[in-house]
Amino acid sequence: MNSVLIKEVPLDERPRERLVKYGARNLSTEDLIAIILKTGTRDFSSKYLASEVLKLVNDVSDLKKLSLSKLIEINGIGAVKAIEFLAALELGRRVYESKALERDLRCNSAEKIYRHFKSELAGLNQEYFYCLYLNQNKMLIDKKLLFKGTLNRSLVHPREIFKEAYLCSAAYIICIHNHPSGNVIPSSEDINITNQLVKIGLIQGIPVIDHIIIGDNNYYSFYENNALNR
What we know:
Blueprint: H1 15-22, H2 29-37, H3 46-54, H4 68-71, H5 79-97, H6 110-121, E1 128-134, E2 140-148, H7 158-167, E3 172-178, H8 188-204, E4 208-214, E5 219-221
Parallel strand pairs: 3-4
Antiparallel strand pairs: 1-2, 1-3, 4-5
Helix pairs in contact: 2-3
């Protein structure tokens, strides 16, 4: 297909025309990617470029793991096409993985919190540290992504965590972060940070009532494991 440009393909076989005629659900993954890429180049059709994208993954679900740098290694896909493709993937993830309004979530169970947020933290290549801010009834007031990168005390600043708590008049805080390795056993740094935040929370009158680590289809709760040193 690389030697055949889209304009040379019969009209009723072109991806866009097929979508209009048959609907998006009836198109192949290759056709859908070709539509997102919009156009090919002088030497490569968008269908060919789409097939090259699919060669990078074993399964369609792995598309979400593609990086900008990996996409632009494909001859014919520049930064603009790669950025637009990644944006389309992220939009699709948000649409289909969206859940009930988070402000209606009652955070009274580590397992419930894990089920609610696991898809948001799945497949990430670095650690993301969130804080959930709760009212007196442990209903979610707000959720904040505060830090990205390797979790350590130089990055996780208590002042930022408790500043947000004051701004939203939170009564409790629950911390969440992921382990890209998939192993949910807390590191020594996880333990140190948790102990520090628990102590500060008691002083500030806004208790940190749990720290949940999310991994591959599993989680670790400091509260459930009686690991919160109060």
